[in-house]
């Protein structure tokens, strides 16, 4: 989670260097999405809101599109939508992306999508109850919600160092307990919840060079020029080893117990499916 992106999101469209942290995050999320798509035979997806706390906006669902899944996005900024469309076009893909003002009414038919999801984006929703009512209305298989890990050291440090930015978002919306309670009231069952995006570095939300300088550890910074890191090189087939390069850092995520992850993981995910019994009663 990088709080400054509220103000500087546009820069990543012109300099797509996301650094190691966001690049690792991209591959971990891709793996989870593709796993869900295979398990539930997903053919259609809506990501809403599509703007979350990570570098290049609007490409979280790109790997699904590459796997012949119909992808829709929803965003609340018209300028960002234009840039997202251009990014997809540069990658030789088109994307269906719509504009909304507040996410309170989703203009899609009932049960249109197999999967609806978002990543670190619920704090841009004005009313979580109304949004999730709409979110579940248009979904027929799976809801995936990824939120920052609020017990993580990285989140806590950024929360108190970025108080002004935090005033611009609805932080209560990312509480897992609140999300689960609302989803259960809407007759959706929590199938899985777990920590995700847990590399062997803290969620510092800034380049590691800046982080080290702040703590007087400039001597640890290499004199070698910093290489640009972007998943766009993978999507454009310039660097097909990109996933393998990122997964070298997944050893900590695989072996760390939950009592460590609760302080170290960058995000949590919540996976919901319809409650068959309650859904029948409702219909």
How is this structure best described in words?
By secondary structure, the protein is of the alpha/beta class. The protein has one domain (5-282): Vaccinia Virus protein VP39 (Rossmann fold, 3-Layer(aba) Sandwich). It is 40% helix and 17% strand. It is built from 14 helices and 7 strands. It has helices spanning 5-8, 19-40, 62-66, 78-90, 128-137, 153-161, 163-166, 176-185, 208-214, 232-235, 242-247, 251-255, 258-264, 276-282, and strands at 44-47, 70-75, 96-99, 113-119, 139-148, 188-196, 267-274. The chain has a 7-stranded mixed sheet with strand order 3-2-1-4-5-7-6, with helices on both faces. The radius of gyration is 19 Å and the shape is globular. The N and C termini lie far apart (39 Å). The model has no long low-confidence stretch (mean pLDDT 89).
């Amino acid at each position: 989670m990088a709080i400054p992106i509220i103000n500087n999101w546009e820069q990543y469209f012109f300099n797509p260097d996301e650094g190691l942290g966001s690049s690792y995050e991209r591959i971990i999320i891709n793996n989870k999405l593709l796993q869900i798509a295979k398990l539930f035979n997903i053919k259609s997806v809506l990501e809403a809101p599509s703007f979350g706390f990570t570098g290049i906006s609007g490409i979280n669902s790109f790997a699904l599109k590459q796997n012949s899944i119909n992808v829709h996005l929803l965003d609340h900024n018209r300028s960002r939508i234009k840039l997202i469309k251009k990014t997809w076009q540069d990658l030789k893909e088109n994307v269906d992306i719509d504009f909304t003002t507040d996410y309170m009414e989703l203009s899609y038919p009932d049960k249109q999508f197999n999967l609806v999801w978002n990543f670190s984006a619920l704090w841009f929703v004005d009313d979580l109850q109304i949004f999730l009512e709409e979110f579940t209305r248009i979904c027929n298989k799976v809801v995936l919600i990824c939120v920052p890990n609020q017990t993580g050291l990285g989140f806590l440090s950024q929360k108190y160092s970025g108080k002004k930015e935090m005033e611009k978002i609805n932080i209560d919306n990312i509480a897992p307990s609140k999300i689960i309670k609302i989803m259960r009231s809407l007759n959706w069952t929590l199938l899985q919840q777990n920590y995700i995006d847990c590399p062997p570095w803290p969620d510092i939300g800034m380049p590691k060079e800046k982080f080290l300088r702040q703590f007087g550890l400039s001597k640890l910074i290499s004199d070698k020029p910093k290489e640009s890191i972007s998943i766009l090189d993978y999507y454009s087939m310039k660097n097909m080893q990109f996933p393998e390069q990122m997964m070298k850092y997944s050893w900590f995520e695989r072996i760390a117990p939950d009592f460590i992850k609760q302080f170290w993981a960058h995000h949590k995910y919540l996976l919901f499916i319809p409650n068959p019994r309650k859904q029948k009663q409702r219909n």
